[in-house]
Design a protein that fits this description.
About 70% of the residues lie in helices and about 5% in strands. The chain has helices at about 1-15, 15-25, 30-35, 60-70, 75-90, 90-100, 105-135, 140-145, 150-175, 175-200, 205-210, 215-220, 225-235, 250-270, and strands at about 40, 45-50. The protein is globular. It comes from Snuella sedimenti.
């Protein structure tokens, strides 16, 4: 595993574009620190400081940071499809296979890289959340600090699933631009299917089925935290209540898609004439 991972990391770090995109994908989540220190002057009457509103308290901060950090996943998605596109355009895939790397090892090297970067990103978000939370949070008890850290697991699974989908589209299309276009097409198809099911049955059934779709299931792992923040400020508003928790069946669905995308990538490469 380490040999395959090391091989892939060397390829990425030798590519200037990949290095820049990897750097951006790791740096952007740290803009959450700027968000925490943001001060908004409201027409000169008073200054609103987000860090003092309690939104960075434990345990809600785990929900907040993982949700915002997940929005930057597209940058590393470009890296994933690019590393496949470069293999075909530079013909390094054929050279690797000639040098003794099997097609299974080739796919595994890509998947290990996906897992590695997803894990590194999750650890960075963990440290970032701890630092901001310890500075702003009113709660310092260990039982509260580490409550709801399952959002970190959901974040890791979400990244791994999304990048595995990018890997499959990269193998399928052979070109980065086409692979990214497939992502957009899949997004459109999911919503068209949702609309058709809603028209044929009803919105509740359509939503339950939609939650099994690849992109939607990944999105559902970490629901938006804004309604939850509003709930904490207006606890008497029952209309604001919603289920924001991380559920194990949602994790299982995304892990199932991840395994399928990696398997399909291997099958596609195995039966393709290079």
């Amino acid at each position: 595993m380490l040999r395959l991972l090391n091989l892939e990391l060397q390829k990425l770090l030798l590519n200037k574009t990949s290095k820049v995109l990897i750097f951006i994908s790791f740096i952007l989540p740290f803009f959450i620190i700027l968000l925490s220190s943001l001060k908004i002057n409201v027409f000169g009457f008073f200054t609103l400081e987000l860090g003092e509103l309690g939104i960075f308290n434990f345990p809600i901060i785990w929900h907040l940071t993982t949700f915002f950090a997940a929005q930057f996943k597209f940058f590393f998605a470009i890296v994933v499809v690019s590393m496949i596109g470069n293999e075909y355009s530079n013909k390094t895939i054929k050279q690797n296979l000639i040098d003794g790397l099997s097609k299974k090892e080739f796919i595994l090297s890509k998947f290990y890289t996906i897992v590695f970067f997803s894990l590194v990103s999750s650890l960075l978000i963990c440290l970032l959340s701890l630092c901001i939370g310890l500075y702003y949070s009113s709660y310092t008890e260990a039982s509260i600090i580490f409550q709801e850290t399952e959002f970190l697991l959901a974040y890791f699974i979400k990244l791994m699933g999304f990048f595995s989908l990018c890997l499959f589209f990269g193998i399928l299309a052979k070109r980065s631009a086409f692979a990214l276009a497939f992502l957009f097409i899949l997004f459109i198809l999911e919503w068209i299917t949702f609309g058709l099911i809603t028209w044929k049955f009803n919105a509740d059934i359509a939503e339950k089925i939609q939650n099994f779709f690849p992109l939607k299931s990944m999105h559902k792992l970490i629901d938006q935290p804004f309604q939850r923040i509003a709930m904490s400020k207006f606890p008497d508003k029952e209309t604001l209540a919603y289920d924001y928790a991380v559920h194990w069946h949602e994790i299982a669905i995304v892990m199932g898609w991840t395994a399928l995308f990696v398997f399909l990538s291997y099958r596609l490469l195995k039966h393709r004439d290079l």
